[in-house]
């Protein structure tokens, strides 16, 4: 148990860090708290935002680190550049080399996904090319661990590209059209999405000589003076100290299941999409040795419905409000955002000076046409009695959900008027490239054909994004900006420079892989 590098966590960031460190000649051990490999990454669709990647270049699509940085700076919340610009530069410069490294050193292969930047209309934005998706891989690549990759709340038979290009738009037709392919994948244990990403990363790590231990929780960081020199962990049922000659990489994910931290930073959260092993271990251990924690109020707040996972109610990501004949209203029965906006999570999480939410609880209000068309949404909603309410009039519907009937009636009438006029003068629904990608010219459809329905628009985190602040080399910093020697952090365990307002679908997985790659390379080079 004598290693150069200890990596804590086996998601995208941890495995990317382990792979890069081992490639640099370090002896690496990965400690995973769960009995499953992959963490939140394995549960994801694994859409990955990689600007200026070699696949888009091969397709003749122009991009550059300079254009990427211009885009990120233009999208970011006011004031973030003061603390995050250094990390944005890392993302702009290192994302593309990371992707090529993964394809060179693992079985992973990526393909372009027809998906725009959320703010493609802004300077530096791109309508196509920055989103990539893993192609399928067989579980059998992992040998004895073939069945130890964490399962998801959704099928992992499809790639992210296949989901975006057709399966989610028409589930039945999409699945039937791929029937022979899906049968072959079942016979060969091939999977896509997050499971494929984890399989490829794990195989690459094993081929580089990394040791991976499951059911190996880390309890604390071991210090040598003011530097981190290892961890205390339980491995094989035995509590022991594991020295790390070059240091430790924390890649433990978010704190979605840490009751105290969630009550402080995300009061009233309805559901999480993260596994219950995401209890903020990295954040807590880093703070114990003097790290500054930042962006603890940031998360991937995402449209979602609910399902059951490991015996509990769990988030199922699902974009539900971009279609016509539905509006989103707050607790005052008023619209507060374009229903197709990529910043729905930001709007939902908006808070006043006192820290209290401005809009929660929020509701979807829709008519019979939406109910007939949105089969997935209705399928999940019908699993819980009373989740979807129905009434013959808007006023009666308002009474069922505790909203002012007159205000809801006025809100619906106002939206219907904009829909008939063809321009949403309140929130400009359907006018951006992102929204037109989903709705084309059908964003504005009236809510006027009964019966009318209402369903809670759940307040969901798919992964918190706060943690120890790091420098451009992923070294963990103290409040005075001094470096804690031997301690690195990557992924959503770190203070993410891409907060709740995402610059792209896939800007959770993409930065996780990139900062893991950066951390692994830097820790392998560390002089000790």
UniProtKB/TrEMBL annotation:
Record carries keyword Oxidoreductase: yes
Domain FAD-dependent oxidoreductase 2 FAD-binding: 4-508
Entry keywords, A to Z: FAD, Flavoprotein, Oxidoreductase
The organism's place on the tree of life at top rank: Bacteria
Family matches, as InterPro entries: FAD-dep_OxRdtase_2_FAD-bd, FAD-oxidoreductase_2
Cofactor(s) the protein needs: FAD
PANTHER family referenced in this protein's UniProt entry, alphabetically: 3-OXOSTEROID 1-DEHYDROGENASE, FUMARATE REDUCTASE
Name the UniProt record assigns to this protein: FAD-dependent oxidoreductase
Organism of this sequence: Reyranella humidisoli
């Amino acid at each position: 148990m004598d290693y150069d590098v200890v990596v804590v966590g086996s998601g995208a960031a941890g495995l990317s860090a382990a792979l890069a460190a081992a490639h640099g000649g370090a002896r690496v051990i990965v400690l995973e708290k769960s009995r499953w490999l992959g963490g939140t990454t394995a549960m994801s669709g694994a859409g990955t935002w990689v600007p200026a990647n070699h696949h888009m270049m091969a397709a003749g699509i122009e991009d550059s680190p300079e254009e990427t940085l211009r885009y990120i700076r233009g999208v970011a919340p006011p004031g973030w550049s003061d603390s995050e610009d250094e990390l944005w530069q890392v993302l702009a410069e290192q994302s593309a080399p990371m992707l090529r490294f993964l394809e060179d050193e693992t079985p992973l292969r990526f393909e372009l996904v027809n998906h725009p930047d959320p703010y493609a209309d802004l300077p530096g934005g791109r309508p196509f090319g920055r989103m990539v998706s893993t192609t399928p891989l067989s579980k059998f690549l992992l040998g004895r661990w073939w069945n130890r990759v964490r399962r998801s709340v959704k099928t992992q038979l499809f790639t992210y590209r296949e989901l975006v290009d057709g399966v989610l738009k028409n589930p039945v037709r999409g699945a039937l059209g791929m029937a022979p392919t899906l049968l072959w994948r079942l016979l060969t244990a091939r999977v896509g999405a997050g499971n494929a990403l984890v399989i490829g990363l794990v195989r690459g790590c094993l081929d580089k000589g990394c040791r991976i231990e499951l059911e190996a929780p880390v309890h604390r960081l071991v210090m040598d003076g003011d530097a981190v020199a290892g961890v205390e962990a339980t491995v094989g049922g035995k509590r022991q100290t594991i020295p790390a000659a070059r240091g430790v990489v924390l890649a433990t994910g978010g704190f979605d299941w840490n009751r105290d931290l969630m009550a402080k930073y995300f009061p009233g959260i309805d559901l999480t999409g993260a596994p219950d092993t995401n209890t903020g271990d990295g954040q807590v251990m880093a703070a114990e040795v003097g790290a500054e924690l930042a962006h603890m109020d940031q998360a991937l707040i995402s449209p979602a419905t609910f399902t059951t996972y490991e015996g509990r109610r769990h988030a199922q990501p699902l974009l539900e409000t971009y279609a016509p004949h539905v509006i989103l209203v707050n607790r005052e029965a008023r619209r507060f955002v374009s229903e197709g906006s990529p910043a729905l999570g930001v709007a939902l999480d908006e808070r006043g000076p006192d820290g209290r939410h401005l809009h929660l609880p929020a509701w979807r209000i829709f008519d019979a046409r939406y109910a007939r068309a949105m089969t997935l949404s209705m399928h999940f909603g019908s699993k819980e009695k009373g989740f979807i309410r129905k009434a013959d009039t808007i006023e009666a519907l308002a009474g069922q959900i505790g909203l002012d009937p007159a205000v809801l009636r006025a809100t619906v009438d106002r939206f219907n008027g904009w829909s008939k006029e063809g321009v949403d003068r309140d929130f400009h629904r359907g006018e951006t490239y992102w929204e037109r990608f989903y709705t084309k010219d059908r964003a504005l459809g009236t809510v006027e054909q009964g019966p009318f329905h209402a369903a809670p628009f759940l307040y969901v985190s798919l992964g918190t994004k706060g943690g120890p602040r790091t420098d451009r080399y992923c070294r963990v910093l103290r409040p005075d900006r001094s470096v804690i020697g031997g301690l690195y952090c990557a992924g959503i365990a770190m203070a993410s420079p891409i907060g709740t307002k995402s610059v792209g679908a896939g800007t959770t997985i993409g930065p996780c892989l990139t900062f893991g790659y950066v951390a692994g390379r830097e820790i392998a080079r560390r002089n000790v």
